[in-house]
Amino acid sequence: MNPRDIIIDDFNYELPDDKIAKYPLAVRHESKLLVSTPSGIQDSQFHHLPQFLESEDLIIINNTRVIPARLHMYKDTGGMVEIFCLDPVNQAHQDAMAAGSGVRWKCLVGGAKKWKDNQPLVLSVVIDGIDVSLLAHNHGRSNDAFIIEFVWGEKQFAFSQILDAAGRIPLPPYFNREAELSDIERYQTIFAKYKGSVAAPTASLHFTDDVFDALRAKGVMTDEITLHVGAGTFKPVSEGALGNHEMHDEWFSVPLQVIKRLRNKEYNRLIASGTTAMRTLESLYPIGAKLLKGDSAEGKETIALGQWDAYQFQNSVTREEALDAIIDYLQRNQLENLCATSALLIAPGFQFQCCDAIITNFHQPKSTLLVLVSAFVGDRRKQIYEHALNQDYRFLSYGDSSLLWREG
């Protein structure tokens, strides 16, 4: 079946509100772990993860850091307007976060109709004992977002410091609550590094130092990639066929040394920690195939992979040839990281090139994340979710975990 013709209603199930975890467990690694192989299901806990892996297995984790992207700013009349920062405009995330006044971001704006043209919004904060006034200017729409310019006079402070002082953690909408002080730590992985996400790579929220120590003792390896998760991850799929859904693109970076390890298969089995890591890894093959087919990336800051591009390149080249093309491109341009954007929609019919297993939470009905899981495990998805519901697993971002081995 053409993945564009897949009907989203086929990925629906009843999720009672009391199954949605609104808060995390007190100890990260005490969450449940559902382990599914083609031969059956086993119930465990996340701190037992090393028992289900083997020496030389490789886990890929996403080291992105969630930014406090929600800003409550005010009109001169006193009315509040909420601005939700999505992505910087024509700038890498790290450059935009380091900017010392004058950055433009694509943003969602709550109450935009009440925000008059040429009317700046203001927010006053104190950083290191210094009063800072943040101004926001509306430069119009860009598709379903607004272009907002932020300026502040105190250039010794980077935009990241402004957000840390003034912003709020953007919790998923299904929590139906405001962010609390504890969310600043718990809606963040313990290894988060690079600021840019507006949603956490939640599959990795379960990892603790104890779990990593046990994995190392077992001989399990880990490598890091970066994918900045966008708000589009929560965008519901339009009714009807998947072809009606516009997938969000997300910026990612993969170190050259990781791509070389993948190319030479310097591991036993490859496990993606989360759908973000899986989307990144499975974007590599079609990107390499595009390079081989004459899509020149020379002079571009990033390579762009479209929503359906991967399907036209399936089996067009070998996995090794695709990764060799990326390695050659990086070495030729003296780059240490592959930087790209991916709007890849992984659906049944997708041919996986990298991942043998995925660590992932339990996802919303009729979501692209549930479609991804279905593509990976096939018809087992219904059995997995029915088991999780019957055994009182906790669902969604703060919920329990699963280790799913690939079908076939």
CATH homologous superfamily assignment of the largest domain: QueA-like
Q: Which word captures the global form?
A: globular
Question: Widest sheet: strand order?
Answer: 2-1-18-17-14-3-12-13-16-15
What number is the mean pLDDT?
93
Query: Strand share of the residues?
Result: 25-35%
Radius of gyration over alpha carbons?
A: 21 Å
Query: In whole angstroms, how far apart are the ends?
Result: 18 Å
Question: In terms of structural class, how would the helical and strand content be classed?
Answer: alpha/beta
Number of domains: 2
Low-confidence stretches: none
Q: How are the secondary structure elements laid out?
A:
Blueprint: E1 32-37, E2 40-45, E3 58-62, E4 64-66, E5 70-74, E6 80-88, H1 93-98, E7 103-110, E8 121-127, E9 130-142, E10 145-151, H2 159-166, H3 183-186, E11 194-197, H4 209-218, E12 221-227, E13 250-255, H5 256-263, E14 270-273, H6 275-292, E15 303-305, H7 309-312, H8 319-332, E16 337-342, E17 357-361, H9 368-377, H10 380-390, E18 401-405
Parallel strand pairs: 1-18, 3-12, 3-14, 4-11, 14-17, 15-16
Antiparallel strand pairs: 1-2, 5-6, 6-7, 7-10, 8-9, 9-10, 12-13, 13-16, 17-18
Helix pairs in contact: 5-8, 6-8
Could you describe the 3D structure shown?
The chain has two domains: 3-65 and 188-405, 3-Layer(aba) Sandwich (QueA-like); 69-168, Thrombin, subunit H. Helix content is 23%, strand content 27%. The chain has ten helices and 18 strands. It has helices at residues 93-98, 159-166, 183-186, 209-218, 256-263, 275-292, 309-312, 319-332, 368-377, 380-390; strands at 32-37, 40-45, 58-62, 64-66, 70-74, 80-88, 103-110, 121-127, 130-142, 145-151, 194-197, 221-227, 250-255, 270-273, 303-305, 337-342, 357-361, 401-405. The strands form three sheets. It has a ten-stranded mixed β-sheet with strand order 2-1-18-17-14-3-12-13-16-15. Helix 6 packs across helix 8. It starts with 31 loop residues before the first strand and ends with a strand.
